[in-house]
Design brief:
Length: 508
């Protein structure tokens, strides 16, 4: 039963006097949102006494459709991540399109082909699968591309397909075991909002509950389809008119009409590009983050870049000999980065330092969350081993006992995933077991910070976690006197292992 609080009068009721309403009452209030004040974000979905009971929430059809939708988002995230380092969540995408696919199927298909009642809880399973599958691709936007560019793995990624699969599996299953002990602390005790999760829950409720729910779902689905068709058509048509529908070289045009000094801005990459992926990221990215990205770009490519070139600290290459002053400063040619660095290579280091310092500051500011989260996570294990009762701080779990994940289930998954990870990293990559265990510990610590950040602001700090872990393991590799390439591979693998396990833990 979902608890909804009626508007408070002058004599506000206490918490014990809150009115619990049935789903029928909830439908009426859903059609008039101003008639109630708030919904407890840690309460389950409302259940109707007149409707089907979802005995089978975890179904093959929900997981299969969710994974397919997550695969689409994962491919998009890899593209966007390689371009910008950003990623988008697939929770709402999975919730809406999962409903659009499975709801008609549940009515028209026979039971053995995926038919049967489709409710909000199964819809949530679909979006959960889509979210998890969509986020795992983040490990392929940083560490692995760097490893191939440095020549640390095989010549082509297809030659390492087996190692890439097993590495992904190690990252995916380990995060699932983290979610259960952290749920009690972050959701039931601290009652963090998790804005993206709440948005997905409210979206699913609006798809299944209330008057005209299916009509609303149809409009949302059509909006996604129209956006997909529009972005696809724009990309295809722009191939035939790139200067009109894709890249606007404004400063190049100004140079052609006589303002020759404008070519300097073109040389530094100041063009307008109508990339649908970037437009979409801008629509879902918060204003503060967007201002930070714009400010960093302006600082790097309009101030620092021209200064270091003028001082002789970095050099560019001629982009077109026929156009005086037309240069390119985006090269990452590492033939002689010490004596002739490009501006892009030169600014890589202060940018990395900023990221690492921000990561360490984030870790330091959240030390209390680390401590409390570890205490909450290790409490059930200590209770199990000591056979003593641990104080639960009066935390009430609204989920029935038979629907909770038992201790033996997530703890056994934790042990198995640790063992498999150590074997895979040692056999396929030659990594020391101790270093792998240290990476797993850091993944757990960073997952506490990630849950705190995601739960309060929906900000994904996965890049910061990866940078901080690489700094630590870089120092470890230098202390072991590894050869350069061996140390580089160790640094990248442990950083990706920490990043992947941490990311899957709070996404799950």
């Amino acid at each position: 039963m979902l608890e909804i609080v009626a508007p408070q009068s002058k004599e506000s009721p206490s918490d014990t006097e809150k009115t619990a309403i049935t789903l029928r009452d909830y439908e009426e209030k859903l059609d008039s949102p101003s008639s109630f004040q708030f919904i407890n974000t840690d309460d389950p979905f409302p259940e109707s006494p007149d409707d089907h009971i979802e005995d089978q929430q975890l179904t093959v059809r929900a997981v299969l459709v969710g994974c397919i939708l997550g695969g689409v988002i994962s491919a998009s995230n890899i593209y966007i991540g390689l371009k910008t380092g950003l990623a988008i969540s697939s929770s709402l995408f999975g919730a809406i399109l999962g409903f659009a696919i499975l709801k008609p199927l549940s009515r028209s298909a026979p039971t053995f082909l995926g038919g049967g009642y489709f409710g909000p809880k199964e819809n949530n399973i679909c979006q959960s699968a889509a979210t998890s599958a969509g986020s795992i691709g983040l490990i392929f936007v940083s560490g692995f591309p760097a490893a191939y560019q440095l020549g640390l793995l095989s010549a082509q990624p297809k030659d390492d397909i087996g190692r890439l699969f097993t590495f992904t599996i190690c990252c995916a299953f380990f995060g699932l075991s983290f979610t259960q002990p952290l749920r009690k602390f972050y959701i039931l005790k601290l009652k963090l909002v998790f804005p993206l999760g709440v948005a997905a829950a409210q979206t699913i409720q609006s798809l299944h509950v209330g008057k005209g729910a299916e009509a609303i779902a149809g409009r949302k689905t059509r909006a996604l389809i129209y956006a997909f068709i529009g972005a696809t058509l724009l990309r295809i048509i722009s191939e035939y008119a790139p200067g009109l529908l894709w890249d606007w070289h404004i400063f190049y045009a100004m140079n052609r009409i006589g303002l020759t000094s404008a070519i300097a801005a073109e040389s530094w990459g100041w063009i307008w590009e109508w990339t649908p992926a970037f437009v979409g990221v801008g629509m879902v990215t918060g204003a503060n983050a967007s201002y930070s990205i714009l400010g960093g770009s302006f600082l790097a490519w309009a101030i620092i870049g021209p200064v270091i070139v003028a001082q002789g600290l970095a050099v560019g290459v001629v982009a077109d000999p026929a156009i005086p002053g037309y240069m390119s400063y985006m090269s990452m040619n590492l033939a002689d980065p010490i004596h002739h660095p490009s501006p892009r290579y030169w600014m890589l280091w202060p940018g990395t330092l900023i990221l690492v310092c921000a990561s360490l500051a984030e870790v330091g500011c959240n030390w209390k969350s680390f401590y409390l989260g570890m205490r909450s996570a290790l409490g059930p294990l200590l209770q199990w081993f000591s056979q003593t009762t641990v104080e639960d701080d009066n935390v009430v779990d609204p989920v029935p006992e038979h629907e909770r994940v038992p201790l033996w289930a997530w703890s056994s998954l934790l042990v198995i995933s640790v063992i498999v990870t150590c074997i895979v990293m040692n056999v396929q990559f030659g990594q020391n077991v101790g270093v792998t265990l240290l990476a797993i510990i850091f993944a757990f610590l960073f997952s506490l910070m990630g849950c705190e950040s995601e739960g309060r602001t929906s900000m994904n700090i996965v890049t910061s976690a990866g940078n901080a872990s690489q700094l630590i393991f870089g120092g470890l590799a230098s202390g072991q006197n590894y050869p350069i390439k061996r140390g580089q591979l160790l640094n990248l693998l442990t950083g990706m292992l920490t990043l992947g396990k941490y990311n899957e833990s709070f996404k799950a």
